[in-house]
UniProtKB/TrEMBL annotation:
GO terms for molecular function: DNA binding. Residues 403-445 are annotated as: Disordered. Belongs to the plasmid mobilization pre family. It comes from the Bacteria. CDD domains: MobM_relaxase (cd17242). The keyword Mitochondrion does not apply. This is Mobilization protein. It comes from Slackia equolifaciens. It holds the Pfam family Mob_Pre. Signal peptide: none annotated. Keywords: Coiled coil. Gene3D superfamilies: 1.10.287.1490, 3.30.930.30.
Length: 445
């Protein structure tokens, strides 16, 4: 891309100092360039395709030559014009930078004659390599005057007048004594590069480069922002580019930060999803454990009910055992009644036959009723014992799945019951064995 800027007499020294990098003021006692983006380690790479021996004297000579002297102040006339032609960021131009700037210089000679060129300096020590094509925009314009023999007439045939009432005449070119047109020189950047020529500048330069390199190098700006920047003055353009460079660096840093943040966010999202999945599994497990706890609670409640029932059964069994003990005492009384009969049996050996018969008859009569009563009691006791044993076994099976403590308690109670049952069985057996022998009565002879 390229950018045109003009400078008045007050800026010539500063600009020449910038072009030559303080060549005319190496100690910078008069001029000081404030551009901090100049890399002094690369300043030695700068060069000039064309340069006057004394650029400042050359500009002053052109000021002295012109017929119309330049103005100063705020509306200063541009005595030098500066085309800044920047090397496009095209990989195909790497290593061919000097060739690019030389081609651009030759193209500029088609518009600006060499006699007006101050210099063409290439700077390689700034952000992007560029060339300052500096020249004095001098033009020669025809000297015009009013031909008072040819007044301007309106539609009614009356002489036209300006706002002050002064008659208006046709403008004609002044001629010298030999009849030749008279011209005068002046500085006029807008006349050298008119609006129409400015519109064609970039396309023409692009064609010149394509004709030399065989491809489009990228002179014409495709970016709207760059096109807007190209209309700025050179100092403003440099500041704008520097600001854009800083903003682009910041944007790249923010984009890198965004990529890093997105990566962290993705990892965090995956971790959250993982935790959610784990939480769902934990919820399911808790639900299962809650069901198990409910089942266990129901089982415990059922065991408590079974334990209460077992206690009730134990109370009933205890009552029955107490009844058995009562029966046992009754049987003991019957045994006491049998002791006299046993004494009669002791006299058996000493008695004679008639006495033995009398003893037998006495024993038989005394034991007959007792034996029947005891036999009935024993039978009833045996049935009750079997009934108690059946209930105890059923109770044992029912209470068996209970807790260890309940099992131990029931085991102790069961052992006690078993001992009582054994004692009852033995007592019943002893009663049967202690009953007196009987014999059938002898038949009468």
């Amino acid at each position: 891309m390229a950018n045109l800027q003009g400078y008045g007499t007050n800026s010539v020294g500063n600009m020449l100092n910038h072009y030559t990098r303080h060549a005319g003021d190496p100690e910078q006692t008069k001029y000081r360039y404030a551009n901090q983006d100049i890399d002094q380690t690369r300043t030695h790479l700068n060069y000039a395709i064309f340069a006057r021996d004394d650029p400042a004297a050359f500009v002053q000579s052109k000021i002295d030559e012109v017929d119309v002297k330049p103005k100063g102040g705020d509306k200063a006339t541009n005595v030098i014009s500066d085309w800044v032609i920047t090397l496009p960021k095209n990989p195909a131009l790497i290593g061919r930078e000097r060739e690019f700037f030389k081609t651009a210089y030759n193209h500029m000679l088609k518009t600006v004659p060499e006699k007006l060129i101050v210099g063409a300096w290439v700077h390689m020590d700034e952000n992007q390599p560029h060339m300052h094509f500096c020249f004095c925009p001098i033009v020669h314009t025809a000297v015009m005057t009013n031909d008072k023999s040819r007044p301007l007439l309106d539609a009614q045939g009356q002489v036209k007048r300006d706002k002050k009432g002064t008659p208006r005449y046709e403008r004609v070119q002044v001629r010298d004594a030999a009849g030749k047109p008279v011209y005068r020189s002046s500085f006029g950047q807008t006349k050298v590069y008119t609006r129409a020529r400015m519109k064609k500048f970039h396309p023409d330069l692009e064609k010149a480069m394509e004709g030399h390199f065989g491809f489009k190098v990228g002179i014409e700006l495709e970016d709207k922002g760059e096109k807007l920047l190209s209309d700025l003055k050179q100092p403003d353009y440099i500041k704008a580019k520097e600001t854009m460079s800083r903003q682009q660096s910041r944007i790249r840093a923010l984009e890198a930060k965004e990529v890093e943040t997105r990566g962290k966010l993705g990892a965090l999202t995956d971790e959250v999803e993982k935790k959610r999945s784990q939480s769902a599994d934990i919820d399911l497990e808790i639900g299962g454990k809650t069901g198990e706890l409910d089942d266990l609670q129901n089982e415990i409640e059922q065991k408590i009910l079974d334990l209460a029932a077992a206690k009730a059964e134990c109370e009933a069994v205890s009552q029955r055992l107490e009844s058995l003990r009562q029966r046992e005492r009754e049987v003991a009384g019957d045994v006491a009644e049998l002791r006299p009969i046993a004494a009669e049996i002791g006299r058996w050996e000493a008695a004679d036959r008639a006495g033995k018969r009398a003893i037998l008859d006495s024993i038989a009569d005394g034991c007959s009723a007792l034996r029947e009563r005891i036999q009935g009691r024993v039978e009833r006791l045996g049935k009750r014992i079997e009934e108690v044993g059946a209930r105890v076994r059923a109770l044992r099976e029912k209470v068996m799945p209970s807790t260890r403590k309940l099992k131990r308690g029931l085991k102790e109670k069961q052992e006690s019951l078993d001992e009582m049952m054994d004692w009852a069985r033995k007592s019943a057996g002893s009663f049967g064995r202690e009953s007196a022998p009987t014999r059938s009565r002898p038949q009468s002879r």
